Amino acid sequence: MSLPKAELHLHIEGTLEPELAFELAARNGVTLPYADTDALRAAYRFEDLQSFLNLYYELMAVLRTEQDFADLAHAYLARAAAQGVRHAEIFFDPQAHTARGVGLGTVVGGLWRALERSRAEHGVSTRLIMCFLRDESAESAMATLRAAEPYLDRITGVGLDSAEVGHPPAKFREVFDAAAALGLRRVAHAGEEGPPAYITEALDVLGVERVDHGLRCTEDPDLVARLVRERVPLTLCPLSNVRLRTVDTLAAHPLPAMLDAGLMCTLNSDDPAYFGGYAGDTFDAVRRTLGLGDERLRELARNSFLASFLEDDEELRAR
Ligand code: HPA
Ligand code: ZN
């Protein structure tokens, strides 16, 4: 479906399609432990978030040069544009690259090459959000923020991702405070696999403006009432939830009930190369399987712009 929409929850490393992974592996002399793209695709059967993350980090070995990051982002933006995305707020995971000896300047420089041409080339405006890996230390997150200071003109905000359970938001209080002091916007994954209390903590301790996933808020009626009252946007990713088994089936996804409850939901694709669909595919899937009508779909698309970090009225009107 080509309803104009904004994508607010998208990990650029999660857009690495098997074909591009093999192309980059060949270019960089990296050997992947899969015979071909079919064998790689066959490995896309996940038990939970961690089993996905293992493959997600493993495949990043093929991303080495600025050109690689530029090619990755360019391929994503072309696909997104074809599915009606007019604005994309793109996560990246610097620590997953610096840990392999790929510098932050290479990552940001490469992504930026594709992003700065995106409006003219694809009709898609963009923002970059730098995520800290929550299963790494708070000190490593702070060092990453410091290392990013030369690039802050290209980075709109910070986020928090990777393995959630056992890594509560409060672990990153200081680095989120420091990010806010630098004028960065704040978001965090919370309530994907972790408990509803992590959502509350992300809001109260990290000061986030949006909650990524936030799915498990449904277990706490008081929290739902607060999210409704404060109009906190949730960046839901239903296809991801199915693949990572946080819901049993797409038909059982609580999205319709969440909309009925008055939550400000948005629809997103998370890691589309791994989870079976980009933004338009996600809209199509929830329309077909959850029976959402046109009005609900328009509400989701409208929410995506309202919850975005687009500020200037003119830019918003141009969408
Ligand atoms: N959850 C947490 N971390 C991630 C994800 C996700 O769905 N995708 C990439 N990093
Ligand atoms: Zn995510």
UniProtKB/TrEMBL annotation:
Site (Important for catalytic activity): H213
Catalyzed reaction equations: adenine + H2O + H(+) = hypoxanthine + NH4(+)
Residues at which substrate binds: D271
GO term, biological process aspect, one: nucleotide metabolic process
Gene Ontology MF: a single term: zinc ion binding
Record's keyword annotation contains Hydrolase: yes
Record-linked CDD domains: ADA
Highest taxon, organism lineage: Bacteria
Role summary: Catalyzes the hydrolytic deamination of adenine to hypoxanthine. Plays an important role in the purine salvage pathway and in nitrogen catabolism.
UniProt cross-references to HAMAP family, sorted A to Z: Adenine_deaminase (MF_01962)
Family: Belongs to the metallo-dependent hydrolases superfamily. Adenosine and AMP deaminases family. Adenine deaminase type 2 subfamily.
Protein name as it appears in the record: Adenine deaminase
